[in-house]
Amino acid sequence: MTLRQVHVLNGPNLNLLGRRDPSVYGTATLVDVESLCAEAAREAGLELVFRQSNHEGVLIDWIHEAFEAGAAVVGNFGAYTHTSIAIMDALAVVEAPVVEVHISDIHAREEFRHQSFVSLVADDAIIGQGVDGYAQAILRVAALLEGR
User: Fold this and answer.
1) Is 138 exposed, middle or buried (0-12, 13-18, 19+ CB in 10 A)?
2) Of the listed 7, 80, 102, 134, which one is catalytic?
3) Domain that holds residue 65
4) Does the global pTM surpass 0.90?
5) pLDDT, position 26
6) Is 134 noted as a catalytic residue in this protein?
């Protein structure tokens, strides 16, 4: 039996985790986040695809790959969350669960971060739980898959 896939997609500047504003994002690196996600995916019986890009078009291509594979998406699209209708449109066609994740509480930060285009099409959002939010998002995907 083939495991269901979850694609964890990370947007701009998340490659700098651990070095970029640790008072907001913590000290865990993206490698640490990938390990956390791998453990959560194993626990949930999901195959993990973990990626990061600073480029909007690359992220959209990866969303299309997830769609074609019938895979779920956990997405932290960074600043594109607040600006990219193109990412929102790409996520809107994904038939498997889509869960948005943010390390910080975007609603407690600058007003321009309060609007999330991703939230308009996501099945759920895990916000402000630090990097542990990624594991929570993967477990939420598993629960949504069970319910379908």
Assistant:
1) buried
2) 102
3) 4-146
4) yes
5) 86
6) no
User: How many domains in the chain?
Assistant: 1
Locus of tokens 């990412």: 87
pLDDT tens for each residue of the chain, 148 residues long: 456 999 999 999 999 999 988 888 889 999 999 999 999 999 999 999 999 999 999 999 999 999 999 999 999 999 999 999 999 999 999 999 999 999 999 888 878 778 899 999 999 999 999 999 999 999 999 999 998 7
Q: What is the CATH number of the domain that holds 67?
A: 3.40.50.9100
Q: Quote the tokens at residue 5.
A: 């896939």
Which residue in the block uniquely carries the two structure tokens 């956990």?
74
Q: Which of 7, 25, 80, 134 is the catalytic position?
A: 25
Write out the chain in H/E/C secondary structure.
CCCEEEEEEECCCHHHCCCCCHHHHCCCCHHHHHHHHHHHHHHHCEEEEEEECCCHHHHHHHHHHHHHHCCEEEEECHHHHHCCHHHHHHHHCCCCCEEEEECCCHHHCCHHHCCCCHHHCCCEEEECCCCHHHHHHHHHHHHHHHCC
Residue 80 annotated as catalytic: no
